[in-house]
Amino acid sequence: MKKFTAYKDVSQAEDLVALAKELKQHPFQHQEFGKNKTLGLVFLNPSLRTRLSTQKAAFNLGMNVMVLNLDKDSWSLELEDGTVMNQNSQEHIKDAAAVISQYCDIVGIRTFPDLKDREADYSEQLLQKFIKYAQVPIVSLESATRHPLQSLADLLTIEEHKAKAKPKVVLSWAPHPKALPQAVANSFIEWIKESDVELVVCNPEGMDLAPEFIKDVTVLHNQEEALKEADFVYAKNWSSYENYGEILAGHENWRITADKMQLTNKAKFMHCLPVRRNVVVTDEVLDSEQSLIYQQAENRTYAAQAVLLKLLGHE
Ligand SMILES: NCCC[C@H](NC(=O)CCC(=O)O)C(=O)O
Ligand SMILES: NC(=O)OP(=O)(O)O
């Protein structure tokens, strides 16, 4: 594996899930692989889980870790080539990526979309430029359109908790007061649709995800119908792809409640976190036995560890 930014970077997702599962049993068995290797983690946006679980994954492999909050502690980046940099940007991404990667064997980068210019966000310009100018493998810590480490952890969580060979997995849009990226939802679909599950996505009219992600996927605009007999309910808000970055107000009734969970086949509840309690989903659901939110967060460590191990050259 040369980089980890999307499903297509991985040759066998099942193998990666199996490796993560094995690492969860024996986290320290590959310490020699990471010895004297350095992981750099670059954040342009906030993070709790990705920041800590990826560091923990690296420590489990015997790696050293350096973290840079580029948005707060470093220079503001210029992305365009040939610009006369006499305005606000202070360092070109070309120089920043080249220099950071000199200090590291693997670099992880988190970069959210600005949710204003759809083409710019969907071309992943910052991530792609970083890859272009860095000389080492790059791991996405959530980019403008995808969150592959989250999706890999989610696959592992579903694998561990499924009670039948082909469970019904429902990804449901849920309300939120702020415009959020489509990345977690896009990525979840991209990974799970290749697994042996019955996938249903549900969202209000006008909130369909990008055609490239929902191609050949069942999309319903009726949440109650979608939830029937679900084995897993994954809730997530996203802002509009169609009216790019717009919030959909007036759909508070899409919140996941205990009553809605009654429609399901005693489904497990999933969310990537952070979650706005009692907006996206009620406390009653989040704090119930059905909730897998902390198991998902725990699995982030082993998903990241599997990815780092592959990038370090483990067969
Ligand atoms: N990394 C996991 C999700 C990150 C981001 N959520 C957020 O920004 C939530 C912020 C808030 O609740 O205001 C998202 O949806 O893609
Ligand atoms: N789920 C997730 O990626 O969380 P953070 O944004 O806190 O890293």
Helix content: 25-40%
Topology order in helix (H) and strand (E) letters: HHEHEHEEHEHHEHEHEHEHEHEHH
What is the count of β-strands?
A: 11
Let me know the CATH homologous superfamily of the largest domain. Answer: Aspartate/ornithine carbamoyltransferase
Mean pLDDT: 97
Determine and state the CATH class of the largest domain.
Alpha Beta
- Order of strands, widest sheet: 9-8-7-10-11
Bound molecules: N~2~-(3-carboxypropanoyl)-L-ornithine, phosphoric acid mono(formamide)ester
User: Largest sheet, described in full?
Assistant: 5 strands, parallel
Report how far apart the termini are: 9 Å
Function: Catalyzes the transfer of the carbamoyl group from carbamoyl phosphate to the delta-amino group of N(2)-succinyl-L-ornithine to produce N(2)-succinyl-L-citrulline. Is essential for arginine biosynthesis.
Enzyme class: transferase
Catalytic activity: N(2)-succinyl-L-ornithine + carbamoyl phosphate = N(2)-succinyl-L-citrulline + phosphate + H(+)
Pfam families: OTCace, OTCace_N
Output the keywords.
315 residues; alpha/beta; Rossmann fold; five-stranded parallel beta sheet; four-stranded parallel beta sheet; 14 helices; 11 strands; 37% helix; binds N~2~-(3-carboxypropanoyl)-L-ornithine; binds phosphoric acid mono(formamide)ester
